[in-house]
Amino acid sequence: MNIKNIQKVLLECYSKDLCYPKVQDNWNENNNCFGMCAITSLIINDYFGGDICKIHVDGLSHYFNLVEYKIIDLTSNQFNCEIDYKDFQIVDRQKILTDDTKHRYNILKTRLIKALLKQVDEKVYSCKSCNKLVDKFPNDATVSLGKDNDIVLVGEAPANNGWRKSHKLWCDINGKVLPSGVVLQKLFDIIDRDIFETTFLESVKCYPLERKNLKTCSSNCKNIMLEQLKILNPKLIITLGEFPTRNLLNFKFNKFADVVGNIYEVNGFKILPVYHPSPISPKSYKGNIPIFENLRDM
Questions:
Q1: Cα 38 from Cα 60, distance rounded (Å)
Q2: Dist CA 113 CA 128 (whole Å)
Q3: What residues contact 214, with CB distance under 8 A and at least 6 apart?
Q4: Pick from 91, 98, 81: which is nearest to 20 by CA?
Q5: Could you report the per-residue pLDDT of 3-43, keeping only the tens digit for each?
């Protein structure tokens, strides 16, 4: 994640409705980071950790971030004076998240995620690494965003008759839920979630013309996939099958069954491999039931 790029995109996402209500009348497009410090500091805290800090500038509360002893203040330009940061206090994140601030933060975070993912998709559509091996993904986005990104599903590659043609996740061109979607929803019922409201992306972004190309395509798409996951910043990644699991785990394993059901921490992500939900696999449902029961009880 690049802070300069995040700042640039945030400037495009700010709007009057996201400004702190008490000073909203003073917001204008020429100073569009005005009144955005609290919700911006929450987002930087999401991605980079550290502390959220508070000082007073011109009689106003002002929030910024302290990450590895470095001050990050993406909304300092709202003031026409030099800011003295020495008398700051560290603030509990939860104390900032009043109902209003949480609402504005959620809107800004959603706008930011969509804009950052769009940048990545531009790389996907201009990529030529697998040109002779794949059909390009025709949709306007290679990530299907859910209600939240607490859990992100990572699939293998676009199915020939699924999302790439129907433009609706887990459905065929006639709107019928695909067999894999039926199995996965039965498993998601265990954890009281809806697959259509869960963020989903593929390990391979385009449609491989032959299955033997999956390994090459997975390797070519890996950095793109990781970039998308860093933007989404999920609490848990569920990998559906062997290819996305091998693409994300930083160690080699012989049998896929040896890693299924275990949670691994890799590059700041928690990764839970499960059997692919395709009914072709004898373990697609019954083999995954204990995993989702454990997940429900966590």
A1: 12
A2: 25
A3: 156, 157, 204, 208, 243
A4: 98
A5: 999 999 999 999 999 999 999 999 999 999 999 999 999 99
pLDDT digits (tens, 9 = 90+) for 101-160: 999 999 999 999 999 999 999 999 899 999 889 988 777 889 999 999 999 999 999 888
Any bridge partners for residue 266, and if so which?
269
